[in-house]
Each structure stands twice: as structure tokens, then as C-alpha cells.
Structure to design on (386 residues):
């Protein structure tokens, strides 16, 4: 069944094209309180979501060191406010395209921690059947169109998804996360230009953590105000404190509302910082330790937690309960990943080609490909003469 949500006269009359995300949830502004306690509850949910990502990532460090997780692993520690804040503005029918640093995006989107960790273990119960690993998490049901190991590689995918939404006349938004390094790639400028030219429903969420792998922003960009540069394509663009989840949520809602209202693509420069190295292989010798400590003082968990304590919304007991919840969730995910099975060797050629396509055409599909390509066929295609 299609996830598309068609525009209707009621939508236009009620929202003037503005699609409010999760209408049952209030839209708190930073620091705001209300008598009903809804904003209080919402901030608890935001803090708990960030805490889950943090504890999940910290456990991944230990599991990687124990060789339970292999391959490349890029941690999201320090950037949790971006994923959690932006996801508040999105509806289930919206699409998300991510990067290779996407564990936090996936968890914030609602991909189960069990499926994420099983994927990192290479197990068939993983969200990509264990074939993608840390950099290629994918969940079509939640419209999470994956991580991408190529810097900037998700941008053209997001452009295509948003063009499809426009052609289907929906009010759905496509959100594409990418880093400051990807801003220097041609894919960003091509995507931004076409998105503005075609008025696509695309949210360009640039996670500016100041480093493209080990290259500092100032050594890569002659003009480091990325939001100002993005605005040259004729789209609304502004910078946001990416360490403040409430500021991120407020900015994301504003941008998504504008996109749903038909005002085309929007750009957010989310100024954040990763506390860990680029990847688990990275010795992290290009950053000054004092710089890291300065940013740690702006830890997004601390920023929100301090605000909540100041307003009397959080005490030690409540925070300890959040910690227990996060620890239990990570523990369940680890147990699931440990017990999950590896993919059978007999299935290794599955999904090289679309199984729905094979089912639709049967052996004729193999015949057609044989006619076009002769004997030079990739594995997994059945032929009558095989």
C-alpha cells in the first residue's frame, strides 16, 4: 500500500499546505512550558532518545574492540541532537536519506535497535539482511533509504525521491542528511540547483561537524558560512545550534512547514561536533584536545538535561530511570544480535536481481537478458539452457 499522502482541500484549508508533523504532539519552543505538562513530557522523550543513541554507540565501541563488529564504524556521539531534533518534524510518510554515520539517524527514525545491531553483526536479521553493515542501514517500511558509503552519494537519491513525491502530488517531504565535506562535492550543488529549479519538497540537512574526515572546514571551504552559500540557489537557508535539540526541532519544523507549503527546498546548516574520531580506524591526530573539551561542554545531553533540571522537570531518579531504559534496550539489541543467524550460503546470490521482477517475467526474463547479453550474465539469473 502506498505511503503517499495526497493533497486535499481540507489540507489546504487547514494548513495552507503546511504539513504539521505528528499533530497529536505539541510544538514546544526552546525553554517553553505549558500547564498541561505536554512540553515537559516531550522534553523527556527527546532526552531519552538522545541517551539511547549515546549508550548504543558507546556499546558499539566495546563490541568493535572485541571484534564482534567488523568493517568500518562511524560513531554519532556528540551529534545526537541533530538526528533526534530533525526527526520530530517528519511524518512516517516522509522519506529519510542518510550518510555512512547513520546509526543515530536510524534509531531516531524508529528502526529497532535490534535490527541495527544485528546488521552491524552481519546477521540475516539485520535491517539489510547483514549485507550492508554499519554504513548501509536500510528500512523501506520506515522510508529510511539508507546510509551511503560515498560522500554526498545520498544527495542525488534524495533529489530523485523528492521529484517522485512532486510528480505524485503528495505533501510528503524528503530529508537528506549529509556532512560539510559533502557540501564541497558536485552532487550537492547539482542537487541544490535542480531542487530549487524544480521546486522539490526536499530538506537538505547539513551536519557541519567542522571536519571532512580529517580536513578542517577552514582548509576545505573558502567561505565557511555554508547556509549563506546554499541560499545562493534561491532556497531558504539558515544555521542552527546543532548541540541544542530544541533549537534543531524548532528549525526543522519551520523548514518542513515551508516545504509542505510549496515553498520548495530548504537548507539547514546544523552546527555540531563529533566527540569521537572520524571512524574507529582514525587515530584523531588532527584535532586539538582542548577543542574537543570545549565542545564537550556543549554536550547535547547536558544542554537539555541542565535546562530540564533548572525548570524542575528532571531529577536524579528520573534520569536514572532513563539510563536503565537505555541500558535495557541496548542489552536486548545485543542479545538479539548475538543469537541471530548468519545468512545461509545458498542465499548469497539472492537479491542480485529484483525477485518481484523475476516472479513477474519468469524464465522469459532470463531469456530476454540472454538475448541481449549472451553468456555474459551475472549470477542469479535462471536460464532455460542452464
Amino acid at each position: 500500500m502506498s505511503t503517499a499522502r495526497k493533497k486535499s482541500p481540507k489540507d489546504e484549508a487547514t494548513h495552507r499546505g503546511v504539513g504539521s508533523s505528528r499533530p497529536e504532539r505539541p510544538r514546544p519552543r526552546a525553554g517553553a512550558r505549558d500547564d498541561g505538562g505536554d512540553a515537559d513530557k516531550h522534553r523527556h522523550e527527546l532526552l531519552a532518545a538522545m541517551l539511547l543513541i549515546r549508550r548504543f554507540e558507546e556499546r558499539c565501541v566495546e563490541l568493535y574492540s572485541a571484534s564482534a563488529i567488523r568493517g568500518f564504524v562511524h560513531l554519532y556521539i556528540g551529534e545526537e541532537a541533530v538526528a533526534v531534533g530533525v526527526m520530530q518534524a517528519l511524518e512516517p510518510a516522509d522519506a529519510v536519506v542518510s550518510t555512512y554515520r547513520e546509526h543515530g539517524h536510524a534509531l531516531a527514525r524508529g528502526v529497532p535497535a535490534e535490527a541495527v545491531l544485528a546488521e552491524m553483526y552481519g546477521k540475516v536479521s539485520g535491517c539489510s539482511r547483514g549485507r550492508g553493515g554499519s554504513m548501509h542501514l536500510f528500512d523501506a517500511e520506515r522510508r529510511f533509504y539508507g546510509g551511503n558509503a560515498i560522500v554526498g552519494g545520498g544527495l542525488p537519491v534524495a533529489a530523485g525521491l523528492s521529484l517522485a513525491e512532486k510528480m505524485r502530488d503528495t505533501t510528503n517531504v524528503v530529508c537528506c542528511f549529509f556532512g560539510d565535506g559533502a557540501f564541497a562535492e558536485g552532487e550537492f550543488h547539482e542537487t541544490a540547483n535542480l531542487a530549487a529549479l524544480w521546486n522539490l519538497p526536499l530538506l537538505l540537512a547539513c551536519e557541519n561537524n567542522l571536519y571532512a574526515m580529517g580536513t578542517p572546514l577552514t582548509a576545505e571551504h573558502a567561505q565557511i558560512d555554508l547556509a549563506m552559500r546554499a541560499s545562493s540557489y534561491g532556497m531558504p537557508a539558515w544555521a542552527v545550534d546543532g548541540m541544542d535539540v530544541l533549537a534543531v526541532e524548532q528549525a526543522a519544523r519551520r523548514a518542513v512547514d515551508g516545504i509542505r507549503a510549496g515553498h520548495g527546498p530548504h537548507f539547514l546548516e546544523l552546527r555540531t561536533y563529533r566527540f569521537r574520531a572520524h571512524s574507529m580506524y582514525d587515530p584523531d591526530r588532527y584535532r586539538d584536545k582542548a577543542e574537543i573539551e570545549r565542545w564537550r561542554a556543549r554536550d547535547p545531553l547536558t544542554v537539555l538535561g541542565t535546562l530540564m533540571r533548572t525548570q524542575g522537570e528532571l531529577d536524579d531518579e528520573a534520569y536514572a530511570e532513563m539510563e536503565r531504559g537505555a541500558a535495557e534496550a541496548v542489552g536486548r539489541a545485543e542479545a538479539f544480535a548475538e543469537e541471530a543467524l548468519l545468512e545461509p550460503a545458498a542465499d548469497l546470490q539472492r537479491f542480485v536481481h529484483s525477485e518481484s521482477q523475476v516472479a513477474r517475467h519468469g524464465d522469459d526474463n532470463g531469456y530476454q537478458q540472454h538475448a541481449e547479453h549472451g553468456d555474459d550474465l551475472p549470477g542469479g539469473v535462471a536460464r532455460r539452457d542452464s
Notes: The two ends are 36 Å apart (CA to CA). Residues 5-36, 363-386 have pLDDT under 50 and may be disordered. The first strand starts at residue 95 and ends at 97. The chain is about 45% helix and 10% strand.
